[in-house]
Protein backbone atom coordinates (compact mmCIF):
# COMPACT_ATOMS: atom_id res chain seq x y z
CA UNK A 1 0.00 0.00 0.00
CA UNK A 2 1.46 3.37 -0.90
CA UNK A 3 2.39 5.97 1.69
CA UNK A 4 -0.43 8.28 2.81
CA UNK A 5 0.28 11.88 1.84
CA UNK A 6 -0.91 14.10 4.67
CA UNK A 7 -1.51 17.85 4.50
CA UNK A 8 -1.15 19.55 7.88
CA UNK A 9 -3.04 22.77 8.71
CA UNK A 10 -1.58 24.56 11.72
CA UNK A 11 2.02 24.68 12.84
CA UNK A 12 1.60 25.90 16.43
CA UNK A 13 2.52 23.78 19.41
CA UNK A 14 0.50 20.65 18.68
CA UNK A 15 0.76 21.00 14.87
CA UNK A 16 4.55 21.05 15.00
CA UNK A 17 4.54 18.04 17.35
CA UNK A 18 2.34 16.03 15.00
CA UNK A 19 4.51 16.92 12.00
CA UNK A 20 7.57 15.76 13.90
CA UNK A 21 5.99 12.46 14.86
CA UNK A 22 4.71 11.73 11.32
CA UNK A 23 8.07 12.56 9.74
CA UNK A 24 10.29 10.90 12.34
CA UNK A 25 8.44 8.15 14.21
CA UNK A 26 5.30 6.84 12.55
CA UNK A 27 5.01 4.57 9.55
CA UNK A 28 2.94 4.56 6.38
CA UNK A 29 2.63 8.33 5.94
CA UNK A 30 4.52 11.51 5.21
CA UNK A 31 3.66 15.19 5.39
CA UNK A 32 3.34 16.36 1.80
CA UNK A 33 2.19 19.93 2.43
CA UNK A 34 1.76 22.35 5.28
CA UNK A 35 -0.43 25.44 5.80
CA UNK A 36 -0.43 27.96 8.60
CA UNK A 37 -1.89 31.35 9.49
CA UNK A 38 1.77 32.28 9.94
CA UNK A 39 3.54 31.63 6.59
CA UNK A 40 6.86 32.12 8.34
CA UNK A 41 6.16 29.27 10.75
CA UNK A 42 4.96 27.08 7.87
CA UNK A 43 8.20 27.73 5.95
CA UNK A 44 10.21 26.94 9.04
CA UNK A 45 8.40 23.64 9.62
CA UNK A 46 8.76 22.74 5.92
CA UNK A 47 12.48 23.35 6.06
CA UNK A 48 13.00 21.55 9.36
CA UNK A 49 11.05 18.43 8.41
CA UNK A 50 11.62 18.27 4.64
CA UNK A 51 8.02 19.02 3.65
CA UNK A 52 7.86 19.67 -0.12
CA UNK A 53 5.05 22.24 -0.22
CA UNK A 54 3.67 25.21 1.69
CA UNK A 55 0.20 26.31 0.60
CA UNK A 56 -3.02 27.83 1.87
CA UNK A 57 -5.35 25.61 3.89
CA UNK A 58 -8.08 25.81 1.25
CA UNK A 59 -5.70 24.74 -1.52
CA UNK A 60 -4.18 22.00 0.59
CA UNK A 61 -7.59 20.42 1.29
CA UNK A 62 -8.55 20.44 -2.40
CA UNK A 63 -5.14 19.37 -3.76
CA UNK A 64 -5.54 15.96 -5.47
CA UNK A 65 -2.02 15.03 -4.34
CA UNK A 66 -3.10 15.19 -0.68
CA UNK A 67 -4.78 11.97 0.56
CA UNK A 68 -5.65 13.04 4.11
CA UNK A 69 -5.69 16.18 6.23
CA UNK A 70 -4.59 16.91 9.79
CA UNK A 71 -6.16 20.01 11.38
CA UNK A 72 -4.21 21.51 14.27
CA UNK A 73 -5.45 25.09 13.86
CA UNK A 74 -7.59 26.83 16.55
CA UNK A 75 -11.11 25.48 17.19
CA UNK A 76 -12.74 28.57 15.70
CA UNK A 77 -11.69 27.54 12.15
CA UNK A 78 -12.41 23.82 12.43
CA UNK A 79 -15.93 24.03 10.98
CA UNK A 80 -14.79 25.67 7.74
CA UNK A 81 -11.93 23.23 7.17
CA UNK A 82 -13.79 20.10 8.26
CA UNK A 83 -16.71 20.86 5.95
CA UNK A 84 -14.27 21.32 3.05
CA UNK A 85 -12.59 17.96 3.86
CA UNK A 86 -15.98 16.24 3.97
CA UNK A 87 -16.91 17.79 0.65
CA UNK A 88 -13.68 16.41 -0.88
CA UNK A 89 -14.27 13.06 0.90
CA UNK A 90 -10.84 13.21 2.51
CA UNK A 91 -10.12 11.47 5.81
CA UNK A 92 -9.28 14.09 8.40
CA UNK A 93 -7.67 13.96 11.81
CA UNK A 94 -8.93 16.97 13.77
CA UNK A 95 -7.45 18.18 17.02
CA UNK A 96 -9.94 18.78 19.81
CA UNK A 97 -12.35 20.49 20.16
CA UNK A 98 -14.41 19.36 17.17
CA UNK A 99 -15.48 23.01 17.01
CA UNK A 100 -15.59 25.78 19.55
CA UNK A 101 -19.40 25.90 19.83
CA UNK A 102 -22.05 23.21 20.20
CA UNK A 103 -23.89 24.57 17.15
CA UNK A 104 -20.80 24.41 14.94
CA UNK A 105 -20.18 20.83 16.09
CA UNK A 106 -23.76 19.91 15.21
CA UNK A 107 -23.30 21.28 11.67
CA UNK A 108 -20.09 19.24 11.21
CA UNK A 109 -21.70 16.12 12.62
CA UNK A 110 -24.71 16.40 10.32
CA UNK A 111 -22.45 16.91 7.31
CA UNK A 112 -20.51 13.72 8.11
CA UNK A 113 -23.72 11.79 8.83
CA UNK A 114 -25.10 12.96 5.43
CA UNK A 115 -21.89 11.82 3.72
CA UNK A 116 -22.76 8.38 5.16
CA UNK A 117 -19.27 7.31 6.23
CA UNK A 118 -16.77 8.20 8.87
CA UNK A 119 -14.14 10.60 7.62
CA UNK A 120 -13.29 12.39 10.88
CA UNK A 121 -11.12 11.11 13.72
CA UNK A 122 -10.97 13.40 16.71
CA UNK A 123 -7.84 14.09 18.76
CA UNK A 124 -9.00 12.91 22.18
CA UNK A 125 -5.66 11.26 22.89
CA UNK A 126 -6.40 10.31 26.50
CA UNK A 127 -8.45 7.42 25.10
CA UNK A 128 -5.19 5.98 23.73
CA UNK A 129 -3.30 6.34 27.00
CA UNK A 130 -2.48 2.97 28.54
CA UNK A 131 -3.44 3.96 32.09
CA UNK A 132 -6.75 5.53 31.08
CA UNK A 133 -7.59 2.35 29.19
CA UNK A 134 -6.66 0.11 32.11
CA UNK A 135 -8.73 2.26 34.46
CA UNK A 136 -11.72 1.99 32.12
CA UNK A 137 -11.37 -1.78 31.83
CA UNK A 138 -11.33 -2.16 35.60
CA UNK A 139 -14.32 0.11 36.17
CA UNK A 140 -16.31 -1.52 33.37
CA UNK A 141 -15.49 -5.06 34.54
CA UNK A 142 -17.88 -4.40 37.45
CA UNK A 143 -15.46 -6.10 39.87
CA UNK A 144 -15.70 -3.11 42.25
CA UNK A 145 -19.43 -2.57 41.90
CA UNK A 146 -21.00 0.52 40.35
CA UNK A 147 -19.00 3.74 40.02
CA UNK A 148 -20.34 6.45 42.34
CA UNK A 149 -18.01 9.46 42.13
CA UNK A 150 -15.00 10.74 40.21
CA UNK A 151 -12.33 13.13 41.52
CA UNK A 152 -10.38 14.58 38.62
CA UNK A 153 -7.67 17.19 38.24
CA UNK A 154 -6.32 18.86 35.09
CA UNK A 155 -3.33 21.06 35.89
CA UNK A 156 -1.16 22.69 33.28
CA UNK A 157 1.94 24.69 34.26
CA UNK A 158 1.53 27.45 31.68
CA UNK A 159 -1.40 27.83 29.30
CA UNK A 160 -0.93 29.88 26.12
CA UNK A 161 -1.00 33.68 26.27
CA UNK A 162 -4.43 33.71 24.63
CA UNK A 163 -6.06 31.50 27.27
CA UNK A 164 -9.36 32.81 28.63
CA UNK A 165 -12.41 31.47 30.47
CA UNK A 166 -13.79 29.95 27.29
CA UNK A 167 -10.55 28.07 26.55
CA UNK A 168 -10.33 26.89 30.14
CA UNK A 169 -13.37 24.79 29.27
CA UNK A 170 -13.23 24.24 25.50
CA UNK A 171 -9.45 23.60 25.26
CA UNK A 172 -8.46 22.21 28.63
CA UNK A 173 -11.47 20.73 30.50
CA UNK A 174 -12.83 19.38 27.19
CA UNK A 175 -10.46 16.42 27.62
CA UNK A 176 -12.05 15.32 30.89
CA UNK A 177 -15.53 16.26 29.63
CA UNK A 178 -14.87 13.65 26.93
CA UNK A 179 -12.87 11.05 28.77
CA UNK A 180 -14.65 10.72 32.12
CA UNK A 181 -17.99 9.52 30.63
CA UNK A 182 -15.91 7.15 28.49
CA UNK A 183 -14.02 5.85 31.55
CA UNK A 184 -17.39 5.10 33.10
CA UNK A 185 -18.31 2.91 30.13
CA UNK A 186 -20.37 5.51 28.26
CA UNK A 187 -22.35 7.40 30.89
CA UNK A 188 -23.06 10.81 29.30
CA UNK A 189 -22.92 14.06 31.23
CA UNK A 190 -26.36 15.35 32.18
CA UNK A 191 -25.73 18.57 34.15
CA UNK A 192 -22.93 20.86 35.30
CA UNK A 193 -21.94 23.67 37.64
CA UNK A 194 -18.79 25.76 37.37
CA UNK A 195 -17.38 27.60 40.37
CA UNK A 196 -14.46 29.97 40.67
CA UNK A 197 -12.92 31.58 43.71
CA UNK A 198 -9.58 33.24 44.22
CA UNK A 199 -7.48 33.41 41.06
CA UNK A 200 -3.73 32.84 40.74
CA UNK A 201 -2.10 36.25 40.40
CA UNK A 202 -0.44 35.40 37.06
CA UNK A 203 -3.88 34.73 35.53
CA UNK A 204 -5.61 37.77 37.01
CA UNK A 205 -7.38 39.95 34.47
CA UNK A 206 -7.30 37.14 31.85
CA UNK A 207 -9.41 34.36 33.32
CA UNK A 208 -10.55 32.70 36.51
CA UNK A 209 -7.99 30.07 37.35
CA UNK A 210 -8.42 27.54 38.91
CA UNK A 211 -12.06 26.63 38.28
CA UNK A 212 -14.04 23.84 39.87
CA UNK A 213 -16.56 21.96 37.80
CA UNK A 214 -19.22 19.73 39.29
CA UNK A 215 -20.59 17.40 36.67
CA UNK A 216 -23.40 14.85 36.89
CA UNK A 217 -23.84 11.88 34.60
CA UNK A 218 -27.10 10.37 33.41
CA UNK A 219 -26.75 7.48 35.88
CA UNK A 220 -26.09 9.93 38.74
CA UNK A 221 -22.29 9.69 39.10
CA UNK A 222 -20.92 12.95 40.53
CA UNK A 223 -17.64 14.30 39.16
CA UNK A 224 -15.55 17.07 40.66
CA UNK A 225 -12.99 18.44 38.24
CA UNK A 226 -10.37 21.03 39.09
CA UNK A 227 -8.97 22.81 36.04
CA UNK A 228 -5.90 24.93 36.74
CA UNK A 229 -3.94 26.05 33.70
CA UNK A 230 -1.33 28.23 35.45
CA UNK A 231 -0.28 25.82 38.21
CA UNK A 232 3.42 26.48 37.59
CA UNK A 233 4.90 23.20 38.82
CA UNK A 234 4.11 20.65 36.08
CA UNK A 235 1.50 18.94 33.94
CA UNK A 236 -0.55 17.00 36.41
CA UNK A 237 -3.54 14.93 35.37
CA UNK A 238 -5.25 12.79 37.94
CA UNK A 239 -8.45 10.85 38.13
CA UNK A 240 -9.87 8.61 40.83
CA UNK A 241 -13.05 6.66 40.27
CA UNK A 242 -14.82 5.72 43.51
CA UNK A 243 -16.87 2.54 43.17
CA UNK A 244 -19.06 0.63 45.62
CA UNK A 245 -16.29 -1.76 46.62
CA UNK A 246 -13.05 0.05 45.86
CA UNK A 247 -11.43 2.88 43.97
CA UNK A 248 -9.11 3.09 40.98
CA UNK A 249 -6.79 5.98 40.10
CA UNK A 250 -4.38 6.95 37.36
CA UNK A 251 -0.75 6.55 38.50
CA UNK A 252 0.61 9.66 40.19
CA UNK A 253 4.16 9.97 39.00
CA UNK A 254 6.36 9.87 35.95
CA UNK A 255 9.68 8.77 37.36
CA UNK A 256 11.31 6.43 39.82
CA UNK A 257 11.13 7.48 43.43
CA UNK A 258 14.35 8.86 44.86
CA UNK A 259 14.80 8.85 48.64
CA UNK A 260 17.67 11.00 49.82
CA UNK A 261 18.51 13.35 52.70
CA UNK A 262 15.18 12.67 54.48
CA UNK A 263 13.24 13.51 51.30
CA UNK A 264 11.35 11.46 48.77
CA UNK A 265 11.42 12.89 45.21
CA UNK A 266 9.55 12.13 42.02
CA UNK A 267 9.73 14.26 38.91
CA UNK A 268 6.52 15.80 37.55
CA UNK A 269 5.67 15.69 33.86
CA UNK A 270 6.89 18.89 32.31
CA UNK A 271 4.04 19.37 29.84
CA UNK A 272 1.32 17.55 27.87
CA UNK A 273 3.81 16.62 25.15
CA UNK A 274 5.72 14.45 27.57
CA UNK A 275 2.73 13.12 29.51
CA UNK A 276 0.88 11.86 26.45
CA UNK A 277 3.69 11.16 24.01
CA UNK A 278 2.88 7.47 23.59
CA UNK A 279 -0.86 8.18 23.36
CA UNK A 280 -0.32 10.85 20.68
CA UNK A 281 1.84 8.43 18.68
CA UNK A 282 -0.77 5.72 18.94
CA UNK A 283 -3.76 7.88 17.99
CA UNK A 284 -2.01 9.21 14.88
CA UNK A 285 -0.75 5.79 13.82
CA UNK A 286 -4.36 4.60 14.13
CA UNK A 287 -5.47 7.45 11.93
CA UNK A 288 -2.83 6.66 9.31
CA UNK A 289 -3.68 2.95 9.31
CA UNK A 290 -7.43 3.66 9.26
CA UNK A 291 -7.17 6.19 6.43
CA UNK A 292 -5.05 3.80 4.35
CA UNK A 293 -7.50 0.97 4.94
CA UNK A 294 -10.49 3.23 4.21
CA UNK A 295 -11.98 2.53 7.65
CA UNK A 296 -11.37 5.06 10.41
CA UNK A 297 -11.48 4.05 14.05
CA UNK A 298 -10.97 6.04 17.23
CA UNK A 299 -12.93 8.95 18.69
CA UNK A 300 -15.69 10.08 16.33
CA UNK A 301 -17.31 13.36 15.40
CA UNK A 302 -20.17 12.23 17.65
CA UNK A 303 -17.75 12.07 20.60
CA UNK A 304 -16.58 15.56 19.62
CA UNK A 305 -20.16 16.81 19.39
CA UNK A 306 -21.11 15.37 22.82
CA UNK A 307 -18.09 17.04 24.42
CA UNK A 308 -18.73 20.36 22.67
CA UNK A 309 -22.43 20.33 23.67
CA UNK A 310 -21.45 19.64 27.28
CA UNK A 311 -18.69 22.26 27.05
CA UNK A 312 -21.19 24.82 25.83
CA UNK A 313 -23.44 24.08 28.84
CA UNK A 314 -20.40 24.50 31.12
CA UNK A 315 -19.77 27.93 29.57
CA UNK A 316 -23.32 28.97 30.48
CA UNK A 317 -22.84 27.58 33.98
CA UNK A 318 -19.52 29.44 34.24
CA UNK A 319 -21.33 32.71 33.61
CA UNK A 320 -24.44 32.08 35.72
CA UNK A 321 -22.87 30.14 38.58
CA UNK A 322 -26.00 27.97 38.44
CA UNK A 323 -26.65 24.32 37.67
CA UNK A 324 -27.12 23.83 33.95
CA UNK A 325 -28.69 20.81 32.27
CA UNK A 326 -26.95 19.39 29.20
CA UNK A 327 -29.00 18.43 26.13
CA UNK A 328 -27.87 16.54 23.04
CA UNK A 329 -29.36 16.03 19.61
CA UNK A 330 -30.45 12.56 18.62
CA UNK A 331 -27.54 10.32 17.64
CA UNK A 332 -27.37 9.80 13.85
CA UNK A 333 -27.42 6.14 12.74
CA UNK A 334 -23.83 6.39 11.43
CA UNK A 335 -22.50 6.49 15.01
CA UNK A 336 -24.84 4.01 16.63
CA UNK A 337 -22.60 0.99 16.23
CA UNK A 338 -19.31 2.83 15.95
CA UNK A 339 -16.67 0.50 17.31
CA UNK A 340 -12.92 0.18 17.37
CA UNK A 341 -10.04 1.58 19.32
CA UNK A 342 -10.88 4.31 21.82
CA UNK A 343 -14.63 3.68 21.52
C1 LIG B 1 -3.91 22.63 25.73
O1 LIG B 1 -4.62 23.49 24.91
C2 LIG B 1 -4.11 21.24 25.32
O2 LIG B 1 -4.54 20.97 24.23
C3 LIG B 1 -3.76 20.20 26.26
O3 LIG B 1 -4.10 18.94 25.77
C4 LIG B 1 -4.41 20.47 27.55
O4 LIG B 1 -4.21 19.44 28.45
C5 LIG B 1 -3.90 21.77 28.07
O5 LIG B 1 -4.31 22.05 29.36
C6 LIG B 1 -4.30 22.89 27.14
O6 LIG B 1 -3.66 24.06 27.53
UniProtKB/TrEMBL annotation:
InterPro entries named in the record: Gfo-Idh-MocA_inositol_DH, Gfo/Idh/MocA-like_OxRdtase_N, GFO_IDH_MocA-like_dom, MI/DCI_dehydrogenase, NAD(P)-bd_dom_sf
Keyword terms, alphabetized: NAD, Oxidoreductase
Kinase is among the record's keywords: no
EC category: oxidoreductase
Domain Gfo/Idh/MocA-like oxidoreductase N-terminal: 4-119
Pathway noted in the entry: Polyol metabolism; myo-inositol degradation into acetyl-CoA; acetyl-CoA from myo-inositol: step 1/7
Source organism, top-level taxon: Bacteria
Residues in GFO/IDH/MocA-like oxidoreductase domain copies: 132-248
Record's catalysed reaction(s): 1D-chiro-inositol + NAD(+) = scyllo-inosine + NADH + H(+); myo-inositol + NAD(+) = scyllo-inosose + NADH + H(+)
SUPFAM superfamilies with a match to the protein in the record: Glyceraldehyde-3-phosphate dehydrogenase-like, C-terminal domain, NAD(P)-binding Rossmann-fold domains
EC number: 1.1.1.18, 1.1.1.369
Subunit and partners: Homotetramer.
PANTHER family per record: INOSITOL 2-DEHYDROGENASE (PTHR43593:SF1), PTHR43593
HAMAP family from the UniProt entry: IolG (MF_01671)
Function: Involved in the oxidation of myo-inositol (MI) and D-chiro-inositol (DCI) to 2-keto-myo-inositol (2KMI or 2-inosose) and 1-keto-D-chiro-inositol (1KDCI), respectively.
Record family assignment: Belongs to the Gfo/Idh/MocA family.
Name of this protein: Inositol 2-dehydrogenase/D-chiro-inositol 3-dehydrogenase
Organism: Ruminococcus gauvreauii
